[in-house]
Design a protein that fits this description.
DNA Binding (I), subunit A, 2 domains, four-stranded mixed sheet, two-stranded antiparallel sheet, binds zinc ion
């Protein structure tokens, strides 16, 4: 149980790192962090008391940490969108990236204008705007936080993490 993963938030609630429960409990014990979320029905027994198992903790003091930027690449666009076509919702087949506003209308290469799209939707949409072809995005594309890319290779251990990782 002490090896369960715990999400560490900075003092301003920005996700900072992922650690093991053992280390998070030490941070709590030392008064360096406070518990924000706990795992359901899990408790850690110490000599004198029973502590709930933390799932998310927040540091009491702000730590200056450089924000890891996620590179704007085709691969990362598809990862951000979890290999889900942002027009029809399919997860099947090879994925491409689509410019929501086509380049010829001034659409940029940006996190806000690139989405994951299946071959079929990409072909159907072509060089037109979504309104023109009546194809609408499942969700508004935005710059991913470093942790949302982490999510693509790590199972999120607690659904409550999502609100802090902006995955909701
Ligand atoms: Zn599609």
């Amino acid at each position: 149980m002490l090896n369960r993963y715990v999400l560490v938030l900075n003092q301003n609630y920005e996700p900072l790192s992922i650690t093991k429960a053992k280390r998070a409990i030490i941070l709590l014990y030392l008064g360096k962090a406070e518990m924000i979320e706990r795992y359901d029905g899990c408790a850690v027994r110490s000599v004198s008391q029973i502590l709930p198992l933390p799932s998310v903790v927040r540091l009491i003091y702000y730590i200056k940490a450089p924000r890891k930027a996620v590179a704007l690449t085709r691969k990362n666009i598809i990862k951000r969108d979890r290999h889900i076509c942002q027009y029809c919702g399919t997860k099947k087949g090879p994925m491409t990236t689509d410019h929501v506003i086509p380049k010829k209308f001034g659409g940029k290469d940006s996190w806000e204008n690139l989405v994951c799209a299946c071959l079929e939707c990409n072909n159907k949409k072509g060089d037109r705007s979504p309104e023109e072809v009546n194809m609408f995005l499942i969700k508004k594309p935005k710059r991913p936080h470093f942790f949302s890319i982490v999510h693509s290779f790590m199972e999120i251990p607690d659904r409550r993490w999502k609100q802090y990782l902006f995955l909701d």
